[in-house]
Amino acid sequence: MRPLLHPALSRTWRDRTTLQFGLTDTAGVVLDGLGAVEAALLGEMTGRYDVRALRELAAELGAERAVADRLVDTVLSAGVAVDADTCPQPVTVARAQPELSSIALRGAEPDGGVAALDGRGRVRVDVHGAGRVGAQVARLLAASGVGDVVVHDTTAVRDDDVVPGGHRPGAVGRTRRAALEHAIRADRITSPPPSAAAGDTTAQPDAAILVDAPGAEQNEAADLIRHGVAHLRVLVVETTGVVGPLVLPGVSSCLRCHDLHRTDHDPHWPLALDSYTRRPPPAPACDAATAATVAGIATAQLLAHLDGHAAAAVDGTIEVTSPYGLPRRRSWSRHPACGCGWT
């Protein structure tokens, strides 16, 4: 164990005995009652010295060796230090370091986020639909450490698919899947799992994202439910982007549940949905800002699930409407008439 004060947190001495880590309410921590010995020990928590060396330093300063043990326990439990022995060398993870820092700040694990990022690297996520939003989601997943991102979309890239963070101008005319393969490889910050390296796409994914027009994803969703695969629905309709639900088969509400709830509220909903699916508008709206916002929220929701957190899109949808782009969450529940809840 070689304690290292968290490299993603700023440090401010409020006074001679009070040290503040970080700046925000979510990550900030204040340690008070610190003396000269503790201040000196904190100054040496650079990842160079192990706990034994810190104990000896405490003794040299005239304090009990246990002072070092207590201080190490305090900073680790507070989440303001990590163990340099379990953190990767900066040279090998320069592109991954911001991701590692964010993961580490969300928990108190002493490895600096390494285990969680390794877990992402062993995961396969399928992205169904790779237009303006889906292409960004696929690339963001790779840039966030997901080891295998498989795109399901053989549609040719059009001029209006091109957007920063998604398809590039030179991709026009190629299939969306082929156009994204190189970008995903370039964006990836973890090594792909053996199945990805071998090109095996026959097995079921760990999770999937359905990015398409409303109603068009029902067949894929039904297949994913049968195989017990978690899946997130994402779409932009007119000026509103919708992320959710994140369906956990057998646990949470599904896409059909949501349609049944809408039908209870508006009996003409199935007619409107069928009409939209069969005859979509010739020039659907999806401005660049909304596409980027929706892609970011969708990626964050799926990563939260993969990392073991309770994602807000489970039994819910997160909706953003231009021009303001302020997200709001809408709660949903299983519908009693939907078979997904029957036991």
Automatic annotation (TrEMBL):
Molecular function via GO: ubiquitin-like modifier activating enzyme activity
Organism: Haloactinopolyspora alba
SUPFAM superfamilies: Activating enzymes of the ubiquitin-like proteins
Stored InterPro entries: Ubiquitin-activating_enz (IPR035985)
Name of this chain's protein: Bacteriocin biosynthesis cyclodehydratase domain-containing protein
